[in-house]
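## tool: complex_structure
## caller: assistant
## args:
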Amino acid sequence: DIQMTQSPSTLSASVGDRVTITCRASQSITSWLAWYQQKPGKAPKLLISKASSLESGVPSRFSGSGSGTEFTLTISSLQPDDFATYYCQQYNTYSTFGGGTKVEIK
Amino acid sequence: QVQLVESGGGLVKPGGSLRLSCAASGFTFTDYYMSWIRQAPEKGLEWLSYISSSGSTIYYADSVKGRFTISRDNAKNSLYLQMNSLRVDDTAVYYCARGTGYGSFYFDYWGQGALVTVTS
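## result:
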């Protein structure tokens, strides 16, 4: 099974900060990686697919990069609406989610 | 607009059974793989199962293989999850989600979730 490791598990940041979340796969998943945002009590929302393809309607301050085993989600200038938990998901072989990164207010 | 609405959640004793349903609308149901994903309280997301558009191909996570059964009724635009031999650690919010991609799938639409609580 492919394991997905996200870091950090919690991140404290301020509005306007540049934020980077890392996701590592236990084996190569080429670019079959998605990122989701989840707010408390809500279903996850898809942000990015195929490692770097931004979904329609997602603000351009979100970007994804990487391939193989190492991936990043970057928020270029953190906004109040961005405080949430973020998950990566590999879909190279079935599906596995990372453990999540909670972005909280500093 | 795409809508996925889960139902059938509730309270059940260990060893019991429950069947979740997911009603889909706003898209051509027969064009898409569908999936079940769960989230235990204060925990992360766990993928459980995929079913192909025709229902002929099914995959399960090891944690539920042999206990849970995914199925779909394309005439009713509905997805199901039959859960047997439930355990306390199956307590979670269960989401149905639409799978998008070619041969491998990410999830572009999710339902609001159905809470399943397994307790004696």
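## assistant note: The interface with chain B takes residues 1, 32, 34, 36, 38, 43-46, 49, 55, 87, 89, 91-100 of chain A (CB under 8 Å). Residues 7 and 99 of chain A are 9 Å apart (CA to CA). Handing back to user.
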